[in-house]
Amino acid sequence: MIECVRAVLLTPAGRLLLIRRTWPGATPYRVFPGGHVEPDDPGLRAALVREIREETGAEPQITGLLHVLADAHQRQYFYLARIGSWSEADRTGPEFADPDRGEYRLEEVPLSIQALDASAWSRRRSPHCCAPR
C-alpha cells in the first residue's frame, strides 16, 4: 500500500499555501504540499514535516488529521498545519533539480471553497506522490 501525506497549510495571513504544478505540455494544477511516506520515516507526522521542509523550506506546526482518501492501492492522509514563513531558496529534493519533472511553484491563495474544491483533494498521478515508483 502506497502511503502519502499532505498538508492543508495555513499562512499567517489566513490563506492557503499550495504548490502549482506545471508539467511540460500539460494544464497546470494545484496540490497541497506533501508526498510519499518513506520507509525510514518514524511516522506519518514525521513524514509530513520532512515533506513540508523539502517543499517549502519551512517548519510546520501540525494541528491534526483532517481527511483520509484511500483505495486498493494508496492512502493519502490530509493534515491541517500552520506555517509562519517559507523560503524558495531553502527548498530541497529531486523535483527541484530535474527539469523533466516540471515546475513546483509555491502559491498563497485565499482560503475559500474554490481553493478546497475536489481538484485540490484529488489523487494526482505524478512521480512525486502516490504513484508507483
Care to describe what's here?
The protein has 133 residues and is α+β, with helices and mostly antiparallel strands. It has 3 helices and 7 strands. A hairpin with a 6-residue loop joins strand 2 and strand 3.
Mean pLDDT: 85
**Count of runs of 4 or more consecutive helical residues:** 3
Radius of gyration: 14 Å
Give the oligomeric state of the chains in this entry, treating copies of one chain as homo and distinct chains as hetero. single chain
Helix content: 10-25%
Number of strand segments: 7
Shape: globular
Major β-sheet annotation: 7 strands, mixed
Flag low-confidence runs. Answer: 122-128
Distance between the termini: 12 Å
The H/E string reads: EEEEHEEHEH
